[in-house]
Amino acid sequence: MQRTLIISPNWIGDAVMAQPLLQLLRARHPDRPIDVLAPPAVAPAWRQMREVDEVLQTPFRHGALQLRERWRYARLLKARGYAEAYVLPNTLKYALIPWLAGIKRRVGYKGESRHGLINVMHFDDVPPRPMVPFYAALADAPRAPLRADVPRPAMQVSREQMDAAASKAGLGHGPLIVFAPGAEFGSAKRWPPQHFAGLAQAILAGVPGAQVALLGSPKDRPVCDEIMAALAGRSAAGAVFNLAGQTSLAEAIALIARCAAIVSNDSGLLHVASSLDRPVVAIYGPTDPDHAPPFSSMARSLSLRLDCSPCRQRECPLGHHNCMRGIDADQVWHTLQPMLGTSHATPAGGFAV
Q1: Per CATH, which fold does 3-139 belong to?
Q2: Most Cβ neighbours (<10 Å): which of 53, 146, 216, 342?
Q3: What letter does residue 245 receive in the DSSP assignment?
Q4: Class of 159-343 per CATH?
Q5: Name one GO cellular component term (predicted).
């Protein structure tokens, strides 16, 4: 049986936003299995997508060419009988893999001058498109008109996964609000910890039985520790759980699927929440809220749209960080509160129970 290979982006958010491409490919070939080749850090996200038959983890070091290792791995892929490959990263080294594997149809964007390695080549527009239609366009011919009906990303999480993750984290049965205070890109994308702490206080004062979970990778632990320090000695502190670095990505996805709402910087967990159709408040500063917006049925993007933004810098080049500091906790609480009024009793669609 012929198969399709997807070579995953290196970022969780990009992987989630690429999922509609798989929906379109599955609709075209309902009986053709779709495999995903993904970095270990991103692989758990793909495992929560119903279109994926098998997730293969890349054995390569980040940024390294490792030509001999890529050739050996390509030999293994050749034996699996792929009819086509979609190369989502724009790098030369990932385009080498399906070419070395002898996969006849190799689809992707031009990227790093990949002529020959990519033989169905697409070209990005200027200005760039939002990420969901950007990846979905690979399902069609190059230069084809953009689809008006691109599906939303959709992940699935079982009730058993949600319950197991909540039990391991020590969470009760009250409404769960998730904070995603980190941002892999850099500090400029992070809403200040003091603002998160003020929002936690407002939530716990206004929503009976509420719990707040801080999620993120081990790299996000310091900023989450700052939030906990700002709450120290306050009545809200006992209902705030600092889980950054304490959960696997699969467990974090399961907790997000269970939550009443999420407040997030522009990060991978924001897009996970959107793909699970959870209520989302997304906070943007140095990045463009129109480029990678939340796509839940209940979502709000907050951005001051200052003259200096989006600067797309890892750290504020002007030193004031006003694009994020100027969005205060009251504004976010005012945006979040109506969502909690209708959402906290039962998680919405986007997952299988």
Answers
A1: Rossmann fold (3.40.50)
A2: 216
A3: T
A4: alpha beta
A5: cytosol
